[in-house]
Amino acid sequence: MKLKITSMLLLAFVASFAFLAFTPKADIYTVDVTKSTITWEGKKFAGSHKGTVDLTSGTLAFNGKKLAEGGFIANMTTIKDADKNGGLENHLKADDFFGAAKFPAANFVIKKVDGNGANVNVTGDLTIKGITQSITFPATITWNADKTVTATADKITIDRTKFGIQFKSKSVFANIGDNFIYDDFTIAVKLVAKK
């Protein structure tokens, strides 16, 4: 009886090992930073500002055509204001905001993807100023004729106060009146990647 149980356990172990050994690896696609973009928009009571930040690198991993994992790194020293306001750019890079000298990189790492096909919901860890928070947002996956894949998230809403950015926040400074900047800012991300 012991021999039979031992044989069955051994067979189960070998079968599970064989299954793991033949699990297909995800296909890794490298983000082309020259074709990919991050744009941002921040709002205050009296208006808004828009701009860009450059990507340093990124990858997307697929099981077949299903997004499985990946992420990207943004170079916070490259923050640009669309109106070419050097004063605003310098302020955004300063400690009041993103502290780019001390924290030159912000990064996002995919932890979970819900949905199949073109439209998915992505959950992952966003790190800004050394602080990591989980965020979820909708994204679209497009397979292109040139064998590249494009992952697009048109609107990712981020609460800056969760990353220690409190400058002129009405939720932190209640008596600020109309001289406030909204806590939420948005980014739009387009990643073009190739195997």
Automatic annotation (TrEMBL):
Keywords: Signal. Residues 1-20 form the signal peptide. InterPro entries: Lipid/polyisoprenoid-bd_YceI, TTHA0802/YceI-like_sf. Residues 28-194 form the Lipid/polyisoprenoid-binding YceI-like domain. It holds the Pfam family YceI. This is YceI family protein. It comes from Pedobacter albus.
